[in-house]
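Journal club side-thread
Mid-discussion, someone asked how the predicted structure for our own chain would compare to the paper's figures. Pasting it here so we can look after the session.
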Amino acid sequence: MAAIHAEVGRLREAHSELAARLLPGDRLVYLGNLIGHGQATIATLDELLAFRRDFLCLPGVEPEDIVYLRGAQEEMWRKLLQIQFASGPGEVLDWMLRHGLEPMLRAYDVEPRQAQAVLREGALSISRWTNGLRATIRRHPGHDELFGSLRRAAFTAGGELLFVHAGIDPNIPLASQSDHLWWGSPSFRNLSQPYAGFRRVISGCNPRGEGAHLDAFTCCLDGGAGFGGPLNVACFSLDGAIVESFAI
């Protein structure tokens, strides 16, 4: 599933469609940016957890058959909870707010201006603030556990398909990829051969706003959910082909 950006209405419809299509042996990968930009942070996370419970009730499904990738929005959230260690935490927060973090803060009852004021105080005040934010998250059942389960990337057992949030730098090994996973790389679409032996690299967000694409060795599913576009979902076979897809 492509980036959702807290469009809970589209997510619910996509889950209803998925429930009718899932077959034994299917695995489910959410490609990051589950939240951010959109206003329905809490409802989106609750819907993800509810569908996880339903999915795990299907015969033969194991917990590892459903994976959530960490997108740029979740990466910012992770760094926010450690922001007392940042150089210039106030400036870092300002940058995050410009890139979609504000609705997430408000969802957990944090006023951005108040947060900006705290982050211009000392490390002790900032630590108290982040501890309070963590406590607020824990008051929502399953949210802290979901944030803690996010993966940098996912791949099939035989190494056929690689799933990432925004892209990869083809010149860097997977274990060394960092910001390219969250913010993409201009060279992602220029792959002229399989990356690290994977038949296809599949991403869920196009930070440059170029939308979805299907090339020889890459695929981006981003339909623009959260920015007026549809939420795209696709099923891939192990040879990298799209077996079926739909847009909500």
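Post-session note: Residues 75-145 form one domain.
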